[in-house]
């Protein structure tokens, strides 16, 4: 049997193995004002810079199409001819200075006094229609033909008015949905007339395209 001192030494060794060493104190014993290790570490960390706010860009405004320099000048009305004559007679260079006076002067004119301005109006109408006809012919010669449409578009154009009459106030998207549902419900034989229209338009488009290409040579 072990004596008292041996038993005491064995128990002490067992306790040291099971329990282990005591934990170190949270505060340093060298200074009463020392911070805990975790607090000291966090105090030395630098703050992360704040993330810059992302501002959504405003969508760019669509640009207006450039004016066609070859397009004829619009018609000049009888009142516009009178306005120019009135401004010249009274030495007025700014439109804002004309005011209501020119309108009152035009209203006070007799039919005989307006005759010369109405004649200028008719002459300018002839000029405009002549220039417009030439412009459209030249534009047609330089513009390729329009492509043919698929069968569904012929069906849609034919039935759009019927759908609107049957459903007053319906939106365009709803018209398209109803027309699409009606188209899908048709049999192949019911779709055939619109298929034929599309085929005829395609043949015509190819002929016009070939003629257009020949003109460009």
Automatic annotation (TrEMBL):
Organism of provenance: Geotrichum candidum
DNA-binding region coordinates: 46-136, 145-213
CDD domains per the UniProt record, alphabetical: HMG-box_SF
Gene Ontology MF terms: DNA binding
Keyword annotations from UniProtKB, A to Z: DNA-binding, Nucleus
Superkingdom classification of source: Eukaryota
Positions of region (Disordered): 38-72
SUPFAM superfamilies in the cross-refs: HMG-box
Name the record gives this protein: Similar to Saccharomyces cerevisiae YMR072W ABF2 Mitochondrial DNA-binding protein, involved in mitochondrial DNA replication and recombination and member of HMG1 DNA-binding protein family
Pfam family, one: HMG_box_2
GO CC entries: nucleus
PROSITE patterns noted in UniProt: HMG_BOX_2 (PS50118)
InterPro entries reported in the protein's UniProt record: HMG_box_dom (IPR009071), HMG_box_dom_sf (IPR036910), HMGB (IPR050342)
Positions of the HMG box domain: 46-136, 145-213
